[in-house]
Amino acid sequence: MGSAMREPGVAVVLARLRRGVVGESRRVCHVVPVPDVDGVPDWLEAFCGAVLRRGESEWLPSIRGMPCVRCLSLAADGLRRRELDILRVAS
Q1: What is the DSSP letter of 3?
Q2: Which end of the chain has a smaller Cβ tally under 10 Å, C or N?
Q3: Closest CA to 9 of 91, 62, 85
Q4: Whose CA is closest to 54, among 76, 67, 37?
């Protein structure tokens, strides 16, 4: 499975579902790409595929609680691929 990173330098935020929307064990910290659109979308899709709806999720200043392992894995994979591309160009 490839990386969910769409473009080098894509802006991302950290978000999780609000307390009471789901049980505590499902309130993981997702990595969410910021879409290039005007206004605030009704929902955003995390790297892992989780859908975070407006009013049901909260933006986080840093990882809080348990991170979404899938989101972090895909984000790290995208970073590694970018570093390898930079090394190929430099050599």
Answers
A1: -
A2: C
A3: 85
A4: 37
Tokens of 10: 């894509």
pLDDT in tens, 61-91: 988 889 999 998 888 887 666 555 555 555 5
Going by C-alpha positions, the residue among 69, 73, 77, 59 that lies closest to residue 28 is 69
Is pTM beyond 0.85? Reply is no
Q: Give 45's contacts (C-beta < 8 A, 6+ positions apart).
A: 32, 33, 51, 52
Residue 19 pLDDT:
93
Please provide residue 16's backbone torsions phi and psi, each rounded to the nearest 5 degrees.
-150, 165
- Angle among Cα 20, 22, 26 to the nearest 5 degrees reads 130
